[in-house]
Structure formats: structure tokens, C-alpha cells
Amino acid sequence: MEIKGYKSLPSRFGQFTQSIFDEYSIYTFNISSDIIERYLPNKLDAFVSRTLINLAKNYFFYSKPIIFASRSQLSSNVEQLSDLISLKDFLEDLLSKNDSTLRYNFVITDNCLIFSRIPRMHHITYHLLCKHITLSNRSTNVRFAGEFWRDDDGQFRLNNNSGTYRPSDRLIRQAVKIFNHFIPELKFQGITFRISAQPSTKRRIIIKINRKRPKKT
User: Fold this and answer.
1) With contact defined as beta carbons under 8 Å apart, do 112 and 29 qualify?
2) In a domain, 81, yes or no
3) Chain mean pLDDT for the chain
4) Is 217 part of a structural domain of the chain?
5) pTM, whole model, 2 decimals?
6) Is residue 69 in some structural domain?
7) Is-contact 30 110, C-beta < 8 A?
8) Per-residue pLDDT tens over the stretch 9-19
9) What confidence score (pLDDT) does residue 4 get?
10) Looking at CB atoms within 10 Å, which of 10, 15, 24, 97 has the fewest?
11) What b/e readout covers 102-141, taking b as 16+ CB neighbours within 10 angstroms?
């Protein structure tokens, strides 16, 4: 089943940040709301747990003004993706390498799938832009959030790694059903974030530094 997609284009500010860092695109594919309602009928609230950290995120770090400022990197214009390429071919092209570290954050709302590559370098402008709450633009209709990637064996996988929306493990199977409904050839498999989460950016930097240090003899 074919679904239409588009790529968000950068604003002038976005063009400036891209010239410094790199191009990081946000992709949106429209999905029938009937399909979403069939598999993921319940909405997920952001920052449900009322901890001090979540309160700080909700009312400061990922507040409406911060999200607005982050999304100012995007213009109101979009580039329609070619009708000649299917979602299957598009994802196979994005994930052409079997690399578990190359991942995309994604959200499923009531009528679309939105995703963007997770940056390997920790620069703040894109780090905020690819967060689930920014991808959804603080939507109140988020049904699932997590990551997808192609593992080292070539298997397409997704998880529920979202500190913002915290979808339960039970919903992983439902999200997989949506992906496999539209792109059954890729045979997505679900896995809990507790098993599949990558080390934090800080931890990855420490690991990389330690690997470069000369070994003591």
C-alpha cells in the first residue's frame, strides 16, 4: 500500500545551521486515520510522571517557546517526495547500511508518521529538533514514539525508546503492525528499549575517547 510523503525544508535560520553542522531532514508520511485507530487508538501524554526532571522539561527545556524556536529551523514549505519511490524503497535507501548505531527517532500521530535521523554529534540545534516532542510539535494526538534502524544483520527493528511519551512494551507490537501493514516486505521486528537502547551521547563520547587512548604496555 502506497502512502504519500514529504520532506520539511529549512528556513533561512535552518540553512545557516545546516551550513555549520550538516543537513538533518524531517520526513512525514500521511497515514489513514482509520489504520491508526485500528492499531493505536489511545493517545499518549507527554511527561506523565510528575518528577522534578519532567516538570523542568515540560515547562522549560521543551516548553512551547523552546519548541517554537527549535522548529524555526523549518520553513512552511515542503518538498513532496516522488510518487515513483515507495516508503519501502525510501527506508531501504535511508538505512542502506546494516548499522545499529544509525537510528531514526519517529512518532506516530493520529494521521501521520514523522521521523528524523538521530545525530551522532551532539549539537544543540538539531538535538532539540529531532526530539520526539519537537517532531510532534507538542501534538496531543501522539500514539507511539520510539526509534527505528537496521541492525548489523540487516533486520529492520523498532523500539519504544521515548522518555517523553513512554509507550508501554505492549504497544510495540501494535506499532510493528502499522509498519508491516504498509511495508510488509521489510518485516519490522519490535524490541523493548531496555534491551536495544544505545549508550547516551556522553557515554559514547567517553567510549570513543578511551578507544583512542594508547594502551599501556
Assistant:
1) yes
2) yes
3) 82
4) no
5) 0.81
6) yes
7) no
8) 766 655 555 55
9) 81
10) 97
11) ebbbbbbbbebbbbbbbbeeeeebbbbbbbbbbbbebbee
